[in-house]
Amino acid sequence: MNSKREGYELIPHGADVGIRGWGPSPDDAFAQGATALTSVVTDPGRVRQLTSVKITCAAPDIVVLFVDWINAIILEMDVRGMLFGRFEVTLSGLSLDATIWGEAVDRARHEPAAEPKGATYTLADVSESAGIWTAQCVVDV
């Protein structure tokens, strides 16, 4: 975790895992939530930022937008065989534009711990309290 105002954590949730990210803005909370997702698979600090990928999402509310964002990253991981280590997220209303950086899985450098299959609405929430935004959901593994 980076600091008190920005960070991420994993939350035990039965056979699956909850991810939670927080920061001073919803954009930061979404980026930290994505870093939490990466930490389910591998240590985000060991992922080299060799390739960038753009992701755009829109949804009817901010909670659905967060779940759609996490699902978009899971799809990119699966389709491209990539791990991601840095996320730049810009929210505009209920639309998201992001650039994510990562590298293809290299079994010599990474030992992927789990393969996320999708995010669910169990535990899903995006909220603000005392100037800190939190974004969380459960990931099927």
Detail the topology: elements first, then pairings.
Blueprint: E1 7-13, E2 16-23, H1 26-41, E3 51-58, H2 62-80, E4 82-92, E5 95-104, E6 118-129, E7 132-140
Antiparallel strand pairs: 1-2, 2-7, 3-5, 4-5, 6-7
How would you explain this protein's 3D organization?
The longest helix is centred in the middle third of the chain and has 19 residues, at 62-80. This protein is globular. The model has no long low-confidence stretch (mean pLDDT 92). The strands form two sheets. The chain has a four-stranded antiparallel beta sheet with strand order 1-2-7-6. A hairpin with a 2-residue loop joins strand 4 (82-92) and strand 5. It has a single domain (8-140), classed as Archease, Possible Chaperone, Chain: A, domain 1, CATH 3.55.10. Helix content is 25%, strand content 46%. Helix 1 packs parallel to helix 2 (62-80). It has helices spanning 26-41, 62-80, and strands at 7-13, 16-23, 51-58, 82-92, 95-104, 118-129, 132-140. With 141 residues, it is of the alpha+beta class.
Distance between the termini: 22 Å
CATH superfamily: Archease domain
Structural class, from helix and strand content?
A: alpha+beta
CATH topology: Archease, Possible Chaperone, Chain: A, domain 1
CATH architecture: 3-Layer(bab) Sandwich
Q: Rg to the nearest angstrom?
A: 14 Å
Number of helices: 2
Total strands: 7
What global shape is seen? globular
Q: Please provide the ordered H/E string of secondary-structure elements.
A: EEHEHEEEE
Beta-strand content: over 45%
Give the tally of structural domains.
1
Highest CATH level, the class: Alpha Beta
Mean pLDDT: 92
Largest sheet: 4 strands, antiparallel
